[in-house]
Amino acid sequence: MDDKQTVLDILKDLTGEDFSDNLDEDLYSSALLDSMGTVQLLLDLQDKLGVQAPVSEFDRNEWNTPAKIIAKVEAAK
Amino acid sequence: MRWYIPYGNPTYFIWLALAIIPLMIGLLYGHRFRGYQTIISLFFLILTFGGPNWKTGISLIGYLIYQLILVWLYSTYRQKKDTPNKGWIFVTAVVLAIVPLVIVKLTPLFTPGRQSIIGFMGISYITFKVVQTIMETRDGMIKEFHPVLFGQFLLFFPTISSGPIDRYRRFEADYAKVPEQSAYLDMIQKGVRYVFQGFVYKFVLAYYFGSVLMPQIQMRALMAHGFSWNIVAYMYAYSMDLFFDFAGYSLFAVGISYLMGIKTPMNFNQPFKSKNIKDFWNRWHMTLSFWFRDYIFMRLVFFCMKHHIFKSRTTTANVCYVINMLIMGFWHGETWYYITYGLYHGFAMVINDTWLRFKKKHQDHIPHNKFTEAFAIFLTFNVVCFSFLIFSGFLNTLFFAPKPF
C-alpha cells in the first residue's frame, strides 16, 4: 500500500471521513481534528509509516489538509 | 523624567509614536534599522524598569543572563554530534528555567505581603518563551542558539509586560526580513486600527466597568454581608472589565508590533461568542491557551498514549485536561481561588467533551438550530463569567478575608 493511501486510512480512522476526493479539506477549521486527534495522528504516522514528527514540528498551518500531510510524509521519507 | 507602565497612559503613546516613526519609514523603503530598534527597545525598557523601579531592572538583567546561559548550555548539548538527548537533562533544563518564576510565585505565600526581590513585571511571560525554546531545541526544531536574536525575542518591548506570547521560530523569521511594501502598508493599516480599538477598549470600556461601575457594586456587595444579587452584578462587571482591559492591552501590543513589521499573534477573538468551553479557549487569551495546548497538553497526551498509561483515549484526554488547567491555575498564583479556577476549567472541558460525544452519538434525536446555538452561547458565557468571579478573588474578600466594615 502506498503512503498516500495509508495516510488517508489513518485520517478515516480518526475522523470517520474519507478524504480521497477531498484532499484540500481544512481539518481544523471544520473541527474534524483536535489536539487529541492530532497526537493520535502523529503516533499513527510513527507506527505505520515510520515518520518521526515531534509535537513541535506540528504547525497547524502546514499540516491542516490531507494533501499537506501526505506531502509532509513523502518529504520525510 | 517620568516612568511608565507599558501603555499605561497617553504620554507613553506619544513617546511610542515618536520612537517608531523612523523605524516605519525604514521599513517602508525596504530597510529594517536593527541598531535603531535595539536603542529604542532599551529606551522603553528603561521607562518601565528604571527610575523608582530600578531594582526590578537589575532583577531583569540577572534573569536574562541566567536564562541565556541556560539555553546556550542546553543548545550546545543538543548540537553535539551523536548527542544522547537524555530525558533527564531536558527535564533539568526545563526545571532550571522555571525555578526563578516558582520562587517569585511562592514568596508571597511564605512572607505575606512581600514580593520576591528577583521578580519583575512580565517574568512569567518571558518564562513561557524560554521554556518553549528549550522544548523546541530538544525536538531539533531550533537548531542554533543565537544569543542576540534570542535576547531580542525575550525582550521584545511591545509584549514584555503581559504578552501575547510569541514563538521563537515565528518571531525570528519576521525579524530577519522586511515585509514587501504592500504587505507592510496593510500591516500599518491594521496596526493603527488595533491601537485605536485598544483605546476604546482600555480607556473607555474597561475604565467604565472597572473604575466607575465595579467600585460601587463592590461596596454594595460588602455592605450586604453575605449573599446578595450584588455578587451577580459584580460577576458581570468584573468579566467585562477583565476582557476589555486585557484585550485592550493586547491590541496595543499587537498593533505596535505590526507597525514595527512583526506579526505578533492575536490574543482574543470575540470570546463571548463561544459556543462551548473548548471554543472559548480557542478565543480567549489565545497565545496562553495555545502555549498550554502545544507545550503541556499535547505533550502529556503524547506521552500517555505512547506509553499506554490509560486504557481509553477518553480517560487520557480527561486526565490531561484537568492537569493542564490545574497547572494554569497554579501559574496564575498560589491562592485557593486561582487553583479552583484552573480545576473548574479542567472539569468544564471534561464535561464539554462528554456532552459532545453524547450529542454525536444521538445526533438524530438532539435538536440543533438557531435557538439551541443561542442557548449554548448564553450558557457558555455564564459558565465563563462564573469562573471569572472565582478568579477575581472577590469571594475570598467577601467570605474569608477580615471584614473592613
From TrEMBL, chain A:
InterPro entries registered for this protein in UniProt: ACP-like_sf, DltC, PP-bd_ACP
Keyword entries, A-Z: Cell wall biogenesis/degradation, Cytoplasm, Ligase, Phosphopantetheine, Phosphoprotein
GO cellular component: cytoplasm
Record's subcellular location: Cytoplasm
Pfam families: PP-binding
Modification O-(pantetheine 4'-phosphoryl)serine occurs at: 35
Post-translational modification: 4'-phosphopantetheine is transferred from CoA to a specific serine of apo-DCP.
Superkingdom classification of source: Bacteria
Pathway as given in its UniProt record: Cell wall biogenesis; lipoteichoic acid biosynthesis
Gene3D superfamilies: ACP-like (1.10.1200.10)
Sample GO molecular function, one term: D-alanyl carrier activity
Domain spans labelled Carrier: 1-77
Statement: the UniProt record of this protein carries the keyword Phosphoprotein: yes
One GO BP: lipoteichoic acid biosynthetic process
Family of this protein: Belongs to the DltC family.
HAMAP family xref list: DltC (MF_00565)
Function: Carrier protein involved in the D-alanylation of lipoteichoic acid (LTA). The loading of thioester-linked D-alanine onto DltC is catalyzed by D-alanine--D-alanyl carrier protein ligase DltA. The DltC-carried D-alanyl group is further transferred to cell membrane phosphatidylglycerol (PG) by forming an ester bond, probably catalyzed by DltD. D-alanylation of LTA plays an important role in modulating the properties of the cell wall in Gram-positive bacteria, influencing the net charge of the cell wall.
The protein's name in its UniProt record: D-alanyl carrier protein
Organism per entry: Lentilactobacillus buchneri subsp. silagei CD034
Taxonomic path: Bacteria, Bacillati, Bacillota, Bacilli, Lactobacillales
UniProtKB/TrEMBL annotation, chain B:
Keyword Nucleotide-binding: no
A GO term for molecular function: acyltransferase activity
InterPro entries in the record: Ac/AlaTfrase_AlgI/DltB (IPR024194), DltB (IPR024024), MB_O-acyltransferase (IPR051085), MBOAT_fam (IPR004299)
Biological process terms in GO annotation: lipoteichoic acid biosynthetic process
Transmembrane segments: 12-29, 36-54, 60-77, 89-110, 116-135, 147-165, 194-214, 235-260, 314-332, 338-356, 377-401
Cell compartment(s), UniProt: Cell membrane
Pfam families with a match to the protein in the record: MBOAT
Pathway terms, separated by semicolons: Cell wall biogenesis; lipoteichoic acid biosynthesis
Topology in membrane: Multi-pass membrane protein
Top-level taxon of origin: Bacteria
GO cellular component, one term: plasma membrane
EC numbers: 2.3.1.-
Keyword terms of this UniProt record: Acyltransferase, Cell membrane, Membrane, Transferase, Transmembrane, Transmembrane helix
Function: O-acyltransferase that catalyzes D-alanylation of both teichoic acid and lipoteichoic acid (LTA). D-alanylation of LTA plays an important role in modulating the properties of the cell wall in Gram-positive bacteria, influencing the net charge of the cell wall. Catalyzes D-alanylation from DltC carrier protein.
PANTHER family: ACYLTRANSFERASE, TEICHOIC ACID D-ALANYLTRANSFERASE
Family from the record: Belongs to the membrane-bound acyltransferase family.
Protein name per the record: Teichoic acid D-alanyltransferase
Organism: Lentilactobacillus buchneri subsp. silagei CD034
Gene name for this UniProt entry: dltB
